[in-house]
Design goal:
Layout lengths: L1 H22 L8 E3 L5 E3 H17 L4 E4 L11 E9 L1 H6 L5 E8 L2 E9 L4 E6 L12 E4 L2 E2 L12 E4 L14 E3 L4 H10 L4 E4 L4 H13 L3 E4 L21 E4 L5 H5 L8
Parallel strand pairs: 3-4, 10-11, 10-12
Antiparallel strand pairs: 1-2, 4-5, 5-6, 6-7, 7-8, 8-9, 12-14, 13-14
Helix pairs in contact: 1-2, 4-5
Length: 270
């Protein structure tokens, strides 16, 4: 398995770097159209999605694929890649340099490897996490540009940060105990908790492709992932269409802060 994981990491690094280099000239210069769910999509999204899917099919032909711009139904395969080819399309089209490419590798429906690359800011994150997958010999760990990362042990204060998506603002009670930041990219909102930069984050309507790669990194870094809906997210179910499903999520740096932050979230979110 050691050689397999090395090949998975090398592949994720190479394909996201390749796609990122090709996307940079279109940054700020790409016209977007609106999808049915209100999110934006560009030709760059479609190109990146197709490029990554072809690369996976060539390198790992037995693996399934679920992607934002492609197939949304979870396949009946042992391994499945979940792709967000351009997380942060609105930032990408408006010229804000926080957007990325996210890959999650699932084993029997549970993420065990995640890789997220943010080309404009030169940051790449990856993680390994066996969790409840049943896979042996996975050494857990989370990394930024090859350096180990861990969520913050800090006590809550008004000088710490908490990340939000725009749809979460109406769900929080005020006054809030942290400084609020809105970065515009779901995976980056989550991962900054893993790096220790912020104490928590919330996304009201993330899709499975926003979650799969970051979930592993967050868990491996010691942060706590809280599903705000009643059902657990993983394992995913074979044949289920995940295109229209959202997974309200709270991320916190350590378990002691879960109830603290949940107390500021309106109950109608559950």
């Amino acid at each position: 398995m050691k050689e397999f994981w090395a090949s998975v990491l090398d592949f994720a690094k190479d394909i996201t770097n390749h796609v990122g280099i090709q996307l940079l000239p279109d940054f700020r210069c790409c016209q977007a159209s609106q999808k049915a769910d209100g999110s934006l999509v560009t030709q760059a999204d479609h190109w990146a999605d197709e490029t990554i899917r072809r690369a996976i099919a060539s390198r790992f032909p037995s693996h399934g694929i679920l992607s934002e711009e492609g197939e949304h139904r979870f396949p009946d395969t042992e391994w499945c890649w979940i792709i967000d080819p351009l997380d942060g399309t609105t930032n990408f089209t408006r010229g804000i340099p926080i957007w990325g490419i996210s890959l999650g590798l699932l084993y029997h429906g549970t993420p065990v490897f995640g890789y997220v690359h943010f080309p404009p800011i030169g940051q790449s994150f990856h993680g390994f996490w066996a969790g409840e997958s049943g896979l042996p010999d996975i050494i857990p760990g989370a990394f930024m540009n090859e350096f180990s990362i861990h969520s913050s042990p800090d006590q809550l204060s008004s000088n710490h940060f908490f990340n939000l998506c725009s749809r979460s603002t109406s769900l929080l009670q005020q006054p809030f105990p942290c400084k609020i930041r809105m970065l515009g990219v779901a995976s980056y909102n989550f991962i900054t908790v893993a790096t220790g930069a912020v104490l928590g984050g919330m996304e009201a309507t993330p899709k499975i492709w926003d979650i799969a790669g970051a979930w592993v990194i967050v868990k491996a870094a010691g942060a706590v992932w809280v599903a705000l809906a009643s059902d657990p997210i993983f394992p995913l179910k074979v044949g289920q269409d995940y295109g229209g499903r959202s997974f309200p999520t709270l991320i916190v740096s350590r378990s002691e802060l879960v109830d603290v932050f949940k107390s500021y979230i309106q109950q109608n979110q559950n």
